[in-house]
Amino acid sequence: MTPTAFLAYCAAITLAAATPGPAMFAVITNGVSRGFLRAFMAGVGVAAGDAVLVTLALLGLVALAQTFEWVFLLLKYAGAAYLVFLGIRMWRAAATQSDEPQASQARLSRSFFLGASIALGNPKAILFHASIMPLILNLNTMTLADGLLVVAVVISVNIITMGLYAALAGRASGWFRTPRRMRLMNRFAGSAMIGTGALIAAR
Predict the structure, then answer these.
(1) Contact between 45 and 52 (Cβ < 8 Å)
(2) CA dihedral 134, 139, 144, 146 (to 10 degrees)
């Protein structure tokens, strides 16, 4: 892989990761309502799911992924249902912020699952990776090291991009300290999560 092709691929993946979408919105909503750590774990889940998709594309399993489309549909609906569930819980939540780190840590796996299911539940993403690679990279001359580097780029770009969104959203959560602001934020974020879940299910 030439340095020019590598930089071009990094730019394309960064642009795709930074583009507003369900994954970015889920991370931001988690950051505002639950703080940086929960949002960051959702971003790590997005990175893990995207890494699986790019690996499938590299291995030439696009046709196989299309054959087993029901797996992606199952993941998509699971992620959408979880978003709706979180939205309903936020609507009904008390207007207080939890300061219990243990409780937050116990739910980190749920945030990771949310991010991963959103990423894996988008079968168009694997087609994006499969279509962008031949345009930028010379797949005929790619080595195992090149393939690992591509996967590493996807993971790194997603974690950095989603981490920035999580940090900004986490800082914004400090503004929601009064019960009234917290209640408004819960209603807004809950509605946004329900809407995002419905959008993901309908796509």
Answers:
(1) no
(2) -60
